[in-house]
UniProtKB/TrEMBL annotation:
Domain of life: Bacteria
Molecular-function annotations in GO: hydrolase activity
Family membership: Belongs to the glycosyl hydrolase 2 family.
Organism: Rubrivivax gelatinosus (Rhodocyclus gelatinosus)
Residues in Glycosyl hydrolases family 2 sugar binding domain copies: 63-131
Record's protein name: Glycoside hydrolase family 2
Key words, A-Z: Hydrolase
Lineage, uppermost ranks: Bacteria, Pseudomonadati, Pseudomonadota, Betaproteobacteria, Burkholderiales
């Protein structure tokens, strides 16, 4: 049984199109419409990319164009039929029964088409997808996907084509098009924006019911005006015994507020959908990150979001849940999803189980006007998709000056970072934004530092109590890069060590991955190195949070706390003890 792919706007009447599709490569780009395709020699298992072994193809060569074909049953009726794609990398053209239904560019964000008018009356339908994904194009947002034939350094195999779920669903004549939730903790209120699509004639009402732990918190009814309703739902104050504090969402107590949204014309139900939200605020107060109005230390781990057999696509929904559970079991309260817009189902499990997420835009690796236009468009869509997830607490449009490599000298590149920072704050005023994580900070709410020095003594000398922030920014250059650009001195923002560690440890190194920033020869040394590093960072008062590299081994990188198969390299309880508090030396795992 497939899990519904869009967890914050859930419909019951939907059909997954994941599974076996016809497939072919078109390396010369000779074909332009479905009728041109001469042969379908291959079968592919969607939603796994053709580079992934789980797809049944496992071809990691250079293939700039590929085609998909699937037959499915869907009988036309009075309802609208909408075809949805979770993500297709990079540019897609979709035909239904030979007629063009939709085009889309952007490898990490969803798109859809109303195919009601394209359906065959027999009920037998054919969908064909052409995907263009130039493997050498460095001006498109590509994240960790390598542009060389074989993965090198810190880049991984490419992901071309469909890599998230495809499905169709039936919508009534009047339907919920979008839902957007904005918590307002200080007033114990939930902001709700509803957008209605389809037939909006006559009086259409939205009825909203919020509940938690079986208790109804609110049941309101709003008139839809010009296709929308924007309201704040204030939860009632019961007096001195204020149960509302129990509703506050945090990793330690991830209380979700379930929602049912019904559209009615008069008293006649048009549609009912499921959703959820949470009471949660994230702010910056001077040098500290604040969760629900209280200082909160971020203990995060860098997560690339790759699997050996399936690449950027998870093996299944259970694998996404397991990754969230493992991060928490290792003592972390958050993850920095690195160079990937993660599947919404991962965010669902992070919401439900309690794990904070930094969302980071996959980088382009050339600075051009086209690259910036592509980044802005895709980043805007990602923010729109994930705005309502309580787990998402920070937006990161750039990482380590990737795509803007000359920030110290080229003013237009500075403008790009500043523009993306301000655009992000405009699209979402409720979360902090890191303009460029790692170094060369300009416009930013948090200064993130990347420092892979394996010496605890060096880290103490660089960031210890005797070091004033102005000394840090004027004199220290971890990785050989300045921490803040001229004209952007430290203004008191929180300082976090957002990449460090990267200790490689392989129990059976023969023929496997070995790369890391430093190395351990056995379990005892790995445990000691991790424990000592975490102890040093945790007890460095300058830092209001940290992010250890990394969650799991990823292809040639052996610097995970887990293997690529998600097996702990040392006992989880020993990792968790060091992650949470490292005052005592840890000897477990030997």
């Amino acid at each position: 049984m497939h899990a519904y792919p869009r967890p914050q706007l859930v419909r019951d009447d939907w059909t997954s199109l994941d599974g076996r599709w016809q497939f072919c490569f078109d390396d010369e780009g000779r074909w332009h419409c479905p009728e041109d395709v001469e042969d379908w020699p291959l079968q592919i298992e969607v939603p796994f990319a053709p580079e992934a072994r789980a797809s049944g193809i496992g071809d990691t060569g250079f293939h700039p164009v590929c085609w998909y074909r699937r037959e499915f049953e869907c009988r036309p009726g009075p309802e609208r039929v909408v075809l949805r794609f979770g993500a297709v990398d990079y540019a897609a053209r979709v035909w239904v029964n030979g007629r063009l239904a939709v085009t889309h560019e952007g490898g990490h964000t969803p798109f859809w088409a109303d195919i009601s008018g394209l359906l065959d009356e027999s009920g037998h339908q054919v969908v064909v997808v052409r995907v263009d994904d130039d493997p050498s194009d460095l001006a498109k947002p590509r994240g960790k996907q390598d542009w060389q034939l074989a993965p090198h350094a810190i880049w991984y195999p490419r992901t071309s084509g469909i890599w998230q779920t495809v499905w169709f669903e039936r919508l009534p004549a009047t339907f919920v098009d979008r839902i957007r939730w904005t918590p307002q903790v200080e007033n114990f209120a939930i902001g709700l924006e509803i957008r209605v699509g389809g037939d909006r004639s006559g009086e259409v009402w939205a009825e909203v019911e919020l509940s938690a732990a079986g208790r109804v918190l609110a049941r309101d009814r709003y008139l839809i005006v010009d296709g929308e309703a924007d309201r704040f739902i204030v939860l009632s104050d019961p007096g001195i015994d204020d149960f509302r504090n129990e509703l506050l969402w945090c990793p330690e107590r991830p209380t979700l507020i379930e929602a049912r949204v019904r559209l009615l014309r008069g008293d006649v139900l048009q549609e009912e959908v499921g959703s959820y939200t949470a009471l949660r605020s994230v702010t910056i107060l001077r040098d500290r990150f604040m969760l629900n109005g209280r200082p909160y230390t971020l203990r995060m781990v860098l997560d690339q979001g790759y699997w050996p057999e399936t690449l950027m696509t998870s093996p299944d929904d259970d694998a996404l849940r397991r990754d969230v559970e493992l991060a928490k079991a290792m003592g972390f309260n958050g993850v920095r999803k690195h160079q990937k817009i993660e599947d919404p189902r991962y965010l669902y499990w992070a919401d439900r189980l309690g794990l904070l997420v930094w969302e980071e835009m996959p980088s382009a690796y050339r600075f051009t006007r086209g690259a910036i236009r592509r980044t802005v468009r895709e980043w805007t869509d990602a923010i729109e998709r994930d705005y309502s997830h309580p787990c998402v607490i920070v937006w990161v449009p750039f990482n380590e000056s990737w795509g803007v490599p000359e920030l110290t000298a080229v003013r237009t590149q500075r403008h790009a970072v500043e523009a993306l920072y301000h655009l992000t704050r405009t699209l979402d005023a409720t979360r902090p934004v890191i303009g460029n994580d790692g170094w060369e900070s300009s416009a930013t709410d948090i200064i993130g530092i990347h420092d892979y020095d394996a010496s605890c003594e060096h880290l103490r000398q660089r960031y210890g109590a005797e070091i004033k922030p102005e000394q840090l920014f004027d004199r220290r250059r971890p990785g050989g890069r300045i921490l803040t650009l001229d004209g952007y001195p430290h203004r008191g923002q929180p300082i976090m060590l957002t990449e460090f560690g990267g200790i490689a440890f392989v129990k059976q190194p023969e023929g496997g991955a070995t790369w890391g920033y430093s190395a351990a020869r056995d379990e005892a040394q790995f445990t000691t190195l991790y424990s000592d590093l975490l102890h040093t960072v945790i007890h460095t008062a300058l830092f209001s949070g940290f992010c250890y590299t990394q969650f799991a081994d990823t292809f040639q990188e052996a610097n995970g706390l887990l293997t690529a198969a998600r097996e702990p390299k040392i006992p989880l309880e020993d990792i968790a003890r060091a992650t949470r508090e490292s005052r005592t030396h840890i000897v477990g795992g030997v």
